[in-house]
Amino acid sequence: MSLRASPPTHVPVLLQETIEALAVQPGGRYIDCTLGAGGHAAAILEHSSPGGQLLGIDADPEAVKVAGERLKAHSGSTLLINENFVNLQAICIKYDFHPVHGILFDLGLSSLQLDSNGRGFSFRHDASLDMRLSPDQEVTAADIVNTFPETELAYLIKTCGEEGFSHQIARHIVQKRPIRTTLQLVRTIEQAIGGRRGKIHPATKTFQALRITVNRELEHLESALKQAVSLLGFEGKLVVISYHSLEDRIVKQFMHQESKDCICPPGTPTCVCGHTASLRLINKKVITPSLAEVQLNPRSRSAKLRAAERIITYDEQYKTIEKLCFSVKPKDNGWRKPTLLKRLQRAFLTP
Ligand SMILES: C[S@@+](CC[C@H](N)C(=O)[O-])C[C@H]1O[C@@H](n2cnc3c(N)ncnc32)[C@H](O)[C@@H]1O
């Protein structure tokens, strides 16, 4: 019998629900902004076959390598890029990959990252306090822990970790500096606030706060969501799975705002914002994993899936059609209708 430990694997969360929300169709074009181990990507490629295409993005070069291996059989229809999704629009323009039928964000970390001994994401393994998704990033968790003033540390632990004992933790961190490893930090937090409280480990919230700060997760998400909308074709789907309330709040507010024609403050007598809806909510209520899924994969327990589809405003349709009409050269005393039709179809991504 072999005693070799099996390598960590990542079980894709809400897989069936994701494929349904994306309405994956043969020949469709999709972007997976958080490739991870390629679980969702593999299912998207299977359901979009024949003719489907997938652009996969991950900030972590290791994830791109692992996903590349897993998706080898689909190498002709995939383009895998080691990049941060904050550059989503630039990536799609560079590779001429737009408009698309669907975009997926499965936020957070994969089990490969959480279970890896050397990355510093988990308070269960002793490692240097790194927490960067990509080795190209400059700031590590150790830099923050060892250089931020106490008030700033307390602020980020409170706002990005929603930790009620942020001041006590920040004070202990400053007293114990330098802190170089995850277990040193765990011990410092335990000394600050005592042992286990309820179901979660006392270090959970501080680790979340540091990871969010190191990787600028919230600002990157806000920016990427806006970019995603502009890359969707008509009725293209935007699907986001989040794992904590800060992410989910951003996704919920974004989708709700983008599905409204006016976002003036309540009570404004006439609309002055000029905002028009670009999305329609697919599921008004958030989708969460079934009990069976949580039992099989406990890491799915906090997952929340929200989905919306792109609608094209009349204004956008008018401008696009006008632009296309002017760009088609009249030939033989008439419009070259098939060319115009083809360009219209491409613009609005109709089959
Ligand atoms: C939950 S995992 C995705 C798992 C994947 N859906 C699967 O089925 O294997 C999240 C992935 O998103 C990546 N990620 C997180 N934030 C990112 C960002 N801003 N840009 C690119 N990738 C990011 C992480 O490196 C991680 O690999």
Written description of the protein model:
The chain is built from 15 helices and seven strands. It has helices at residues 15-22, 39-47, 61-70, 88-94, 111-114, 141-147, 150-161, 166-176, 182-193, 204-214, 217-231, 245-258, 291-296, 314-327, 337-348, and strands at 29-32, 53-58, 78-82, 100-106, 232-242, 279-281, 304-310. The chain has a seven-stranded mixed β-sheet with strand order 3-2-1-4-5-7-6, with helices on both faces. Strand 1 (29-32), helix 2 and strand 2 form a beta-alpha-beta unit. Helix 7 packs across helix 8 and helix 11 runs parallel beside helix 12. It is globular, with a radius of gyration of 23 Å. 38% of the residues are buried. The model is unreliable at 1-5 (pLDDT under 50). Bound molecules: S-adenosylmethionine (SAM). S-adenosylmethionine binds at residues 10, 12, 34, 36-40, 57-60, 63, 84-86, 106, 108-110, 133, 220.
Mean pLDDT: 90
The distinct bound ligands, ions and cofactors come out as: S-adenosylmethionine
Largest sheet: 7 strands, mixed
Assembly status:
single chain
> Strand fraction band?
5-15%
Descriptive keywords:
351 residues; alpha/beta; seven-stranded mixed sheet; 15 helices; 7 strands; disordered N terminus; binds S-adenosylmethionine
Topology summary:
Blueprint: H1 15-22, E1 29-32, H2 39-47, E2 53-58, H3 61-70, E3 78-82, H4 88-94, E4 100-106, H5 111-114, H6 141-147, H7 150-161, H8 166-176, H9 182-193, H10 204-214, H11 217-231, E5 232-242, H12 245-258, E6 279-281, H13 291-296, E7 304-310, H14 314-327, H15 337-348
Bound molecules: S-adenosylmethionine.
